[in-house]
């Protein structure tokens, strides 16, 4: 496990963008696992800059997003597909057919989970998985539970997650309560993982994840078992760590 402590959000975002860009430089057809939310926005902006400066080329890159809200269509402004288009994909030269995001409007959600799992298996291992972390230490939408869910699955979101996500919605009743998420096995199968966290509200989750006991109650703690994981933290998110 490698821990990179940065001074602030901007430095965290730049470091993360460099990690992603070097992965693509080493392997132009890399498979990237991607996250949404507030944390990686700066990283996507930095990657767009690198693309405009011709430092990175997404022509052969394949992406798999971690999750999608259930019940939102891809053109809904709150969906993760829309987020990815608006914050990243529309600015780079990725091929639309190389973008994978679970379908939040699938009529049969269990079939959709199976389809996504099969796609992930067919493409082979994700080369680099980018993660954020919830205040409750969720990764993707693998919420605290009494067991780790291995594969892509349908999730009832935690109250804490619903509350945290409410900042992106006008009305509390609009915040989705359910989602489709890659499972822990999907995430752990990635060859490399980089987890980003910033702000004091993530400090407890980071401490438990890195220094605590491995448990499905702290989903991100499973990353202690991954052979190639890097945490890129700002000062506040790292502030409760012993070292
Ligand atoms: C999003 C995802 C989530 C977020 C987490 C943190 O695709 O998988 O695990 O990374 O909820 O969200 P932010 O970055 O908004 O604090």
Structure description:
With 243 residues, this protein is an alpha/beta fold. It has one domain (2-222): Rossmann fold (3-Layer(aba) Sandwich), CATH 3.40.50.1360. Helix content is 30%, strand content 17%. The chain is built from 7 helices and 10 strands. The strands form 2 sheets. A 7-stranded parallel β-sheet has the order 1-10-9-6-2-3-5, with helices on both faces. A 3-stranded antiparallel β-sheet has the order 4-8-7, covered by helices on one side. The longest helix is centred in the N-terminal third of the chain and has 18 residues, at 9-26. It is globular and about 45 Å long. It binds fructose -6-phosphate. Fructose -6-phosphate (F6R) binds at residues 35-39, 66-67, 132-134, 138-141. Fructose -6-phosphate is lined by residues 35-39, 66-67, 132-134, 138-141.
- Biggest beta-sheet profile: 7 strands, parallel
Looking at CATH, which topology would you report? Rossmann fold
CATH class annotation: Alpha Beta
Output mean pLDDT: 97
Computed structural class: alpha/beta
Task: Describe the structure concisely.
The protein has helices spanning about 10-25, 40-50, 80-85, 110-125, 160-165, 185-190, 205-210, and strands at about 1-5, 30-35, 60-65, 65-70, 100, 130, 155, 180, 190-195, 230-235. The chain is α/β, with parallel strands linked by helices and about 240 residues long.
């Amino acid at each position: 496990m490698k821990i990179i402590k940065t001074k602030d959000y901007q430095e965290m975002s730049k470091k993360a963008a460099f990690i992603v860009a070097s992965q693509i430089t080493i392997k132009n057809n890399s498979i990237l696992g991607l996250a949404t939310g507030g944390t990686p926005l700066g990283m996507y902006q930095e990657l767009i800059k690198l693309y405009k400066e011709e430092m990175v080329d997404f022509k052969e890159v394949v992406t798999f997003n971690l999750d999608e809200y259930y019940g939102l269509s891809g053109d809904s402004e709150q969906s993760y597909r829309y987020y990815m288009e608006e914050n990243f994909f529309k600015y780079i030269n990725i091929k639309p057919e190389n973008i994978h995001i679970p379908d939040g409007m699938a009529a049969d959600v269990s079939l959709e989970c199976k389809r996504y799992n099969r796609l992930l298996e067919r493409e082979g291992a994700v080369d680099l998985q980018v993660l954020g972390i919830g205040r409750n230490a969720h990764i993707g939408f693998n919420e605290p539970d009494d067991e780790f869910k291995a594969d892509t699955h349908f999730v009832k979101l935690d109250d804490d997650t619903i509350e945290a996500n409410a900042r992106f919605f006008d009305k509390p009743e609009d915040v989705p309560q359910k989602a489709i998420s890659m499972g822990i096995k999907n995430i752990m199968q990635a060859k490399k993982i980089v987890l980003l966290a910033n702000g004091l509200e993530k400090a407890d989750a980071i401490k438990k994840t890195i220094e605590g006991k491995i448990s499905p109650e702290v989903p991100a703690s499973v990353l202690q078992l991954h052979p190639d994981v890097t945490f890129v933290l700002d000062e506040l998110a790292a502030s409760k760590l012993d070292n």
